[in-house]
Write a structure and sequence with these properties.
Blueprint: H1 2-12, H2 19-29, H3 32-37, H4 40-44, H5 51-59, H6 65-76, E1 80-84, H7 92-95, E2 103-108, E3 117-122, H8 128-143, E4 147-150, H9 156-166, E5 171-174, H10 188-196, E6 200-203, H11 215-225, E7 229-234, H12 240-250, E8 255-257, H13 268-275, E9 280-281, H14 285-292, H15 310-322, E10 325-326, H16 327-334, H17 338-350, E11 354-357, E12 361-364
Parallel strand pairs: 3-4, 3-7, 4-5, 5-6, 7-8, 8-9
Antiparallel strand pairs: 1-2, 2-6, 10-12, 11-12
Helix pairs in contact: 1-6, 8-9, 11-12
Length: 365
């Protein structure tokens, strides 16, 4: 596993070799190690791999020193996980996208990425109206058990994270740098709270990657890709929030925008997107949820006093997404022996979280 990870990370550091081509190479050769062992003739048989790319692979360093440093960092920080496209923890939302990263680093609860998720984005230069509007929307969303995703930036991002935490919700942040840094530095405590309350910090960048301008579009793309929808809280005519929204449209995610005053510069982005019908007008959390048409069962809280461990949470999430699900399919998706799964399902039934249906099928209560 260690060698395979080093091989994959080294491929990610080959100049001109993007995530899509890496995924094609993995699918063709079965492993990253096998890619490095392949001959030029074997590499050329892969669609999209030309002479120039083969030359770049063959002259690249393997294992790359930066990949080795990343390996050392993860060994020193076991709380951080690497999740790539071959992992059962890799979100289904990303698997459907050719443009999605081959993997990412995660600090926190990976199961949070299976929850119904709305990204809340907006300007760093927010107005009092923008702040209060986002607080109201986030409060309504987390009361319906929506996971709030944003970018840990100043302004609307921070309000979205803090409001979710203030109302007992779960929130996660996608970063534009590696875990050896935190930007902005004044959000260090906020990042700790996110992890402590069953959320996660996520980044597609190596641990030693510094925050820099070219990284932010990739961060914004991942925010859009990991979401079921994007809500623009407040946005000028140009800015990172609209970049995220543009990626959302590309990934076929619905975009919503909170309208502001017609003469307010900080809402020109929202109003323009609504006018051009790129975004749907959002006037309440309830209306937004109705527009998304997500099954009500996803918002049904089991019992406030019920406590689930990570394995139980994973099983419940799979059942929610595939209900009514046969136990054999559940065993396949959870990668758990049926005998062990039966015992866990009995425990979840006793807790009032899931119910058994005829034909060895299960659903969430």
């Amino acid at each position: 596993m260690k060698e395979e990870r080093l091989a994959l990370w080294s491929l990610m550091l080959v100049e001109g070799l993007g995530h899509r081509l890496i995924k094609q190479l993995l699918a063709h050769f079965g492993s990253a190690v096998a890619v490095w062992q392949a001959t030029p003739k074997q590499l050329k048989s892969v669609s999209g791999i030309g002479e120039k790319t083969i030359e770049q692979i063959k002259k690249a360093v393997y294992p790359h020193p930066r990949a080795q440093r990343a390996q050392q960092y993860l060994e020193q920080h076991p709380e951080i996980q690497w999740i790539d496209v071959r992992s059962s923890l890799y979100p289904v939302r990303l698997k459907r996208l050719l443009q999605a990263p081959v993997g990412f680093f995660l600090w926190g609860k990976p199961s949070v990425l299976q929850k119904p998720t709305i990204a809340v984005v907006g300007t760093r230069r927010m107005t009092p109206y923008g702040e209060s509007s986002v607080k109201r929307f986030v409060e309504g969303l987390v009361k319906n058990h929506i996971h709030i995703l944003s970018g840990l930036a100043l302004g609307i991002d921070a309000v979205a994270h803090k409001s979710a935490l203030a109302h007992g919700g779960v929130t996660s942040a996608v970063l534009a740098h590696g875990f050896q840094y935190l930007y902005p530095p004044q959000h260090k405590e906020l990042a700790k709270q996110i992890i402590a309350t069953r959320g996660a910090l996520i980044t597609p960048f190596f641990p030693d990657e510094r925050p820099k301008a070219p990284n932010f579009p990739a961060r914004n793309a991942l925010i859009a890709a990991l979401s079921d929808a994007v809500l623009i809280g407040e946005a000028y005519e140009q800015g990172g929030a609209l970049i995220t929204a543009t990626y959302a449209l590309r990934f076929e995610r619905p975009v919503f925008a909170i309208p502001g005053r017609l003469n307010d510069p900080s809402y020109q982005g929202c109003l323009q997107w609504i006018a051009e019908k790129k975004a749907q007008l959002a006037y309440s959390p309830e209306q937004l949820l109705q527009q998304l048409q997500i099954p009500v069962s996803l918002f049904t809280e089991q019992t406030p006093s019920v406590s689930l461990n990570e394995t139980e949470e994973k099983i419940v999430q799979i059942i929610q997404q595939h209900a009514p699900i046969h136990i054999e399919q559940l065993a396949l998706l959870s990668e758990m022996p049926i005998e062990q799964l039966y015992l866990l399902l009995v425990e979840l039934e006793c807790k009032g979280v899931v119910k058994a249906l005829p034909g060895n099928r299960y659903a969430v209560v």
